[in-house]
Structure formats: C-alpha cells, structure tokens
Design goal:
406 residues; eight-stranded mixed sheet; 14 helices; 44% helix; A/G_cyclase; Adenylyl/Guanylyl_Cyclase_3/4; Adenylate/guanylate cyclase domain-containing protein; Nucleotide_cyclase
Length: 406
C-alpha cells in the first residue's frame, strides 16, 4: 500500500459517512481540510465553487484558510459575469476545456489572475486546481458563462517547493468521493431552497420533512391576510408586459419581505394578489403581528410610490384584509399535482371582507375577530360599521387602522 493509499483510506471512509448522514457542506469541507492538515499536507488555502439553484444566487464559493478556517460567499445572479470570475483560473480552465491548472506563481500567472497575485503576497508557492462535473460527460466543451452542474476546486500551499506528486495524487483520489458527498448535501439544500421559494418557508419545510400525502392536513387557528393591488386590471391593459411584470415584482417584493419579517407565511400568489397566513402559536400573537405588518406595509408602499412616481414609473395602491379563524392547512389536489395551502370558511370570509374595500373606502380592513384578539393594540383600530357578507348569517363589524397625521 502506498503512502497516498494509507492517507486516503480513512479519509474516504470519513467522507462517505458524512455523505450518508446528510452532513452540511460546511461541516464536510471544514472536516476535510482539517484532516488534510492533520495528515501533514501543506495546505494554506482550499477553495471550492459550485452552481446554486436559487432564483437570487447563481453560485456559492467555500474557502478554507489555515488562519481563518471556513467561510462561504453567495454570488448574485447577473447578466454580465463579474471581472473576478472572468479573470480566474477556474474560468480559464472551462474556457480552454482543461481538466487541471497548476501555477508556481510565475510572473505571467500573477499578472493574468488577480487571485494568484493575492495568494503570492501571502507566501503561497503552489496552486493546483481541477474540476469534478456531475452527470454524464458531454461531448461539447463546457460553456464557462453557464457551467454545468459540478464543482471547481483548488488547493494552495506555502511549502517551499509546493505540493509533491503524492499530494496531488491524494487530491485526485479523494475528489470523486468528496464530490459525491457534496452533491448529496447540495441537492438537499437545493430542494430546501426551491421548496421554500415556491411553496413558502413553512410549507416548504413541511413538504421536505415528509408531509406529502394527498389529503394530509391539520386544523389550526391562524390569521389570514389577503393582499391585492388596486387598479391592476386597468394597468394591465395600458402597460407593456415587461413593465407590468417589473411593477408587480416591485410591489410583491415589498409585501413579501414585510409579511415574512413579522412572522407571516406566504401561501400563494394569485394574479395580482397574495394569500398569507400568520401562525405564531396563539391567535393573539398572530393578530398583533398581522396588524404590525399591515401598518408597516402601508407606509412602505406609500414611500415606494413616491420613488416610482419621481422616476416616471407607473404606481398602484393596495388593499389588505385580515380575518382569523380555523383553517385546514395541508396537501390538496390530484395525485400528480398537489398544492400545500389553506382552505376553510375563514379563508373564504377573508376574501369577502377584501371585496368590501370600495364600499368602506379604506385600503386596510380588519375583522372584529382580529380586533378582539389584538386588544389591547398600539394601533388605533377604528370601526367602519357592521356589514352583512354573503354566506354569513350574522352581520360582522369591520375596522381599519387609523394612522393619524404624520
């Protein structure tokens, strides 16, 4: 057995165990680097880059250094690649379709690659990079601006003379095993990210934990919030499609961030509306959080409308209805197409309350159930009167938030 095999065998066993246990990428990479150092590998820095399947982030980078340990960085999606990526050894490898890259920090490399210049200033003597792609090999070269799924990896040494052939052999031997463990971990993280983005934070977590059977649901008490943009149909007839989508995304971004900041869960987008739920453990906490979110949302959208009007962009107001009660929360749909959502009389009544905005002349309407649950409230809840709503036997009193003079 070679010296490389002696070092590799226990590391492969450890990496395999981490992958089977579903350990996070951070813990796998931290342990991997620490074990290399314990095996007397002269590792100054380790870096790994992966694609990210996330609507906001296009990639993620992990860096380990002997001095700072493990750190990571997310890279925003953007149409034009950043200069640091275009001038990196990883990009050059993909551009030239090379499997490996090595540098002893000669003048040309330090000039061509800013990261090598930075490393040389820390005393680095050797840089070795390679890649591990996931999936079947492709007959066409990888597009460096849209790399396929996989990972790019580099090791840096500050030992005089750099890495030995045995060190490089060890890196190559361990790489497929490391890639498999990280692929397992990243796929679970990807599933978690996408489920939260498309289903909402709470629903995504529930689905990932196994709540996937059609008809499975639970009865809960919660505050239901229905947010809607006013005049959207008229704007849809006047604005070009891209401008309409930009406007919708702008307002939705404010609404979602505000609601989630106060503990609300986004259940679904419905055209120009959003159905949300507050379920914080008690109906009193739910009501107070929902009212805080509604009040903050009113101020933020008013502020954003001033900014949009100043920039010559179309503006829209909003309506918001709050009601509370028992709902069924879970999987509804067909065997091959499910939706994790909320249904029940409380949801239906929230929609009917929302339809009262024109009649009462207010953007925010709060049911008497929410008003009672939130009492005492720092918000001035003013009665709008009692109304008979379709499908409801008794009249209900409606309220709004009075903000007063600024």
């Amino acid at each position: 057995m070679t010296e490389t095999d002696k070092i590799a065998a226990p590391l492969i066993a450890w990496i395999t165990e981490q992958g089977l246990q579903g350990v996070s990428r951070e813990d796998i990479l931290r342990g991997y680097c620490e074990r290399l150092v314990q095996a007397d590998i002269p590792l100054l820095r380790f870096h790994l880059a992966q694609r990210a399947y996330h609507p906001k982030f296009g990639g993620i980078g992990f860096s380990w250094t002997r001095a700072e340990g493990l750190t990571h960085q997310h890279f925003q999606r953007q149409e034009t690649p950043i200069d640091a990526w275009l001038r990196s050894p990883f990009y050059r490898m993909l551009q030239m379709d090379n499997e490996e890259f090595r540098s002893s920090f000669g003048t040309d490399d330090v000039t061509d690659f800013p990261v090598l210049k930075d490393l040389s200033e820390t005393g680095a003597t050797d840089y070795f990079a390679t890649r591990q792609m996931f999936g079947e090999p492709m007959d066409v070269p990888t597009d460096p601006d849209a790399p396929s799924e996989g990972m790019m990896v580099s090791w840096t040494s500050d030992l005089e003379g750099g890495f030995s052939d045995g060190h490089l052999s060890l890196f190559r031997t361990l790489l497929p095993h490391l890639g498999l463990a990280l692929k397992s971990s990243s796929h679970r993280q990807m599933a978690s990210d996408l489920l939260q983005v498309y289903l909402g934070r709470d629903a995504g977590r529930r689905v990932l934990s196994g709540e996937i059977q059609r008809g499975s649901s639970q009865q809960i008490n919660a505050v239901i919030c229905y947010f809607d943009l006013k005049g959207f149909t008229r704007l849809a007839e006047q604005l070009p499609g891209p401008d309409l989508i930009d406007m919708l995304n702008d307002y939705f971004a404010i609404a979602v961030a505000t609601i989630q900041c106060h503990g609300g869960n986004i259940l679904k987008f419905m055209g120009d509306g959003i159905l949300t739920m507050f379920d914080l453990g008690s109906i009193e906490a739910d009501a107070k959080a929902a009212l805080d979110a509604a009040s903050e949302l009113k101020a933020k959208i008013a502020e954003r409308n001033i900014e949009r009007a100043t920039a010559g962009l179309p503006i829209a107001d909003f309506t918001l209805a709050l009601h509370a009660g028992e709902i069924l929360y879970g999987n509804i749909g067909a065997e091959n197409r499910l939706d994790f959502t909320a249904i029940g009389p409380a949801v239906n009544l929230t929609s009917r309350i929302s339809g009262q905005h024109r009649e009462v002349g207010q953007s925010i309407i709060v049911s008497e159930v929410v008003q009672r649950a939130a009492h005492p409230s720092p918000h001035d809840l003013v009665s709008l009167g009692r109304y008979m709503l379709r499908g409801v036997a008794e009249p209900i009193e409606l309220y709004t938030i009075f903000e007063g003079a600024a």
